[in-house]
Each structure stands twice: as C-alpha cells, then as structure tokens.
Task: inverse folding
C-alpha cells in the first residue's frame, strides 16, 4: 500500500479528534450490548415464581451479581462493583432498553474517539467508579439498597461525549433538538435534586427510598468529567502496570531523536503500524515520535507530487 493511497495524509497530519464523527461501526459497543442483554435473559430464566407469575423473587443471577454494601464490604465479594452494571430491572424493560440505546448510539461516537480497547476500559472503570459512589452515598444516608443497571457507566459515556462536543445537537425523544451541554446540565440537575432530598431526610432521621440509583448516575458523570479534565488514558496505565513500557525502555540507552529522511518502503511499513495502532487504541494514544513519522510521510508525499 503506497503512501499516496492513505486518506489521512492531507498537507499535514490531519488531527480530526476535535470534530464530531458519526459512528460507522460499533464492534465494542455491540459486544457490550450483547453481553448485557444475555445477562438480562439469564436473569429472567433464573427468576423465581410467585403465584405462577415470573419475577416473584429476585433471580439467582441477580443475587450473585447485584451490588450492595454488605456483600462487598463484609463478605469481600468485590466482583459486584462491576457485575451489577450488567443486571437490570426484570419488571421494567425500559430500564435496559434506555441504557442500551444510549450505549449503542452515543457509545459509538466515543469508541471512534478512543479506540475499542480504551473505550472498553473507560466503560468498565466508569461502572466501578459509579458503583463505589453509590455505595458510599447510600451508606451515608442510611439506606441499604441493592444496585443494578448500566446507567452509571452510560452516564459516564454521555458525559465524556458531551464534553468533547458540547455544541453538537441531538434530538430529544426524537423530536426536540438540544445541544449536548444543555442535556448534560439537565441530567446533573435531575439526579442531584433527589440526592439532596435523601440527605435532608437522613438529617431528620427519616428514610426516603428511591427506585432510581441517582447517586450512581452522578458517579458516572463525575468519572466522565475527571477523565476529560485529567486527560486520562487507562490503557496506557495498564500497559505501564504490566511492564510493557518498562521493557521497551530497557532495550536501549537514551538517545536524542533527530528526524531524518527514510526510504519510502521503511516509512510505509512504520505508517502501516501506526495506522493499526490508531484503529486499535485511538488517535490519542500516539506518541510524539509516531506523530513525527506521520508528518514526515506527509511531507515526502507532497514532495513527490511536486
């Protein structure tokens, strides 16, 4: 494959990370949707019966995967901090339908921005962070709640997309056009007010239960904001933890990089590797050296055309 055939080489390396791109394919989002739906089907299949009607008691799957304070802190069942996000309310199909719609549509945009691997790490980390926030909040207000649902993780996905593209418009309920930033502000208000009421009730020694885990929603929004504000790269952190980057550093001594012309065949091979990395991990994962290589390839291509 010659350099001149690559669409990304236009004058200089074209950094399109700041532009909104509609997703063309959603392999990782589709995988998450399929897994979540499969867990929901298992919930239905393992649910108890009451009076001959399904759903009379919690399913066996939900009993092992749902999140609550005692099971995590007293019994050490830490897997629940993640697995709760794959369970949903069996008596309310809109619970899973809404979450999966958000994940499939908005998540596709974020997946193209981050890459499949980083998107998966972000989604799972957002679910864990939202679960921890919810556990802490319910403990503070004295509510022993069982938490299920992907809402915290999907709120994290929505928040990050809204922060990247605040003025992009979507159709609310398929009818009303609204910018991401205003929809984000609305979600913050909608989920914060019930939490304030629950805190006020706790201060008055009253208990105010809710069927919606608003604290998990807010936890997901907070995680999305922190990820954006601190420019996190969870994949890079994991690579460092696994020792991959340390291994590369031990291969040679510190050298000063000096840009020099390379044969097109060698440059073409390096560019192919960088393209594969962009597809796998997203554009933000590129190092300064890799960006220099793309820029050099662009200059050689323009010089050849001239």
Result:
């Amino acid at each position: 494959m010659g350099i001149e055939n690559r669409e990304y080489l236009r004058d200089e390396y074209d950094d399109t990370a700041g532009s909104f791109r509609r997703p063309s394919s959603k392999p990782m989002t589709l995988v998450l949707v399929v897994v979540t739906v499969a867990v929901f089907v298992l919930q239905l299949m393992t649910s108890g019966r009451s009076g001959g009607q399904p759903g009379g008691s919690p399913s066996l799957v939900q009993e092992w995967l749902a999140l609550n304070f005692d099971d995590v802190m007293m019994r050490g069942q830490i897997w629940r901090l993640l697995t709760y996000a794959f369970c949903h309310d069996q008596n309310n199909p809109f619970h899973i339908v809404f979450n999966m719609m958000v994940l499939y549509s908005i998540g596709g945009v974020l997946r193209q921005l981050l890459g499949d691997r980083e998107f998966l790490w972000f989604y799972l980390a957002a679910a864990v962070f939202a679960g921890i926030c919810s556990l802490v909040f319910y403990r503070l207000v004295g509510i022993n709640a069982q938490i299920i649902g992907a809402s915290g993780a999907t709120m994290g996905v929505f928040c990050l997309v809204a922060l990247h593209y605040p003025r992009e418009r979507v159709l609310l309920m398929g009818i009303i056009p609204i910018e991401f930033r205003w929809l984000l502000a609305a979600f913050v208000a909608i989920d914060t007010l019930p939490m304030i009421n629950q805190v006020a009730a706790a201060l008055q020694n009253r208990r105010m239960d809710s069927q919606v885990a608003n604290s998990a929603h807010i936890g997901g929004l907070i995680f999305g904001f922190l990820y954006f504000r601190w420019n996190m790269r969870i994949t890079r952190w994991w690579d460092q933890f696994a020792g991959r980057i340390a291994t590369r550093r031990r291969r040679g001594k510190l050298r000063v990089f000096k840009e020099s012309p390379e044969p097109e065949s060698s440059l073409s091979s390096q560019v192919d590797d960088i393209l594969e990395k962009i597809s796998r991990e997203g554009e933000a994962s590129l190092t300064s050296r890799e960006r220099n290589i793309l820029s050099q390839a662009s200059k050689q291509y323009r010089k050849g055309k001239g």
Summary: The first strand starts at residue 9 and ends at 10. Residues 142 and 205 are 9 Å apart (CA to CA). Residues 1-18, 50-55 have pLDDT under 50 and may be disordered. The radius of gyration is 23 Å.
